[in-house]
């Protein structure tokens, strides 16, 4: 369930209560007249079933409260109340299948920002992947997969496409199109430094046995990317963090980028091209599958609302 708090101008509080009263799945409505100081007005608290959160937020947004007041919503782990249980029964659908779009957009917008932290994590992940390639270490490759932050902008891109939010699409594309090249350039500099020190031999690419799967592009490359994208979006909308970690270690986006860099620095252009192709297939597959999952969720929610 969700805890809703609304700061409303006093002349619109009755309309706020009307929205809450007309929406199934709302319980424990509390009104504090004149309690808000900045902005001035009344405070309305309520418990809202997750399945009805979008309906409530759309109704409140139509009252222009985002301009003259405020709307906040956050998850509530435990609610001990007969009224809350009754509200859950009235609400259509299942809470685990419900997507609170404003919550999802907020989470993906934050995770898709092009920040120094994002670039730092991506660079560290690519450096780990490069070390895993040079040492033929699948364990290090898995570590690079977990560290990589690239699923955030990929998920945001899917959300932006489904919701047709150009700002979110631009934000995620900027993170990917700037973050990956920056991290790859830094990794290339590190690879050149390692070659100068004699840590990397040009013939090292011919001796790989444990990590050569990274650049072996085939039909299963796309299948894995599609499955990972679908599972990742399901994990994101249902807040299943353990499942999301599993997604991170199932796709070879970061390892493929690191492999491409190392192969290019030692002159193995065929392997570099194959690795770049693996990277592109994984990125495309994740976005396509995640967008498809969100679209299905949206259609399902509309079908339940029309019943």
UniProtKB/TrEMBL annotation:
Transmembrane segments: 114-135, 141-161, 173-193, 213-237, 244-267, 279-297
Top-level division of the source organism's lineage: Bacteria
Organism: Rhodococcoides corynebacterioides
Pfam families the UniProt entry points to: DUF389
Protein name per Swiss-Prot or TrEMBL: Hydrophobic protein (TIGR00271 family)
Keyword set includes Protease: no
Alphabetical keyword list: Membrane, Transmembrane, Transmembrane helix
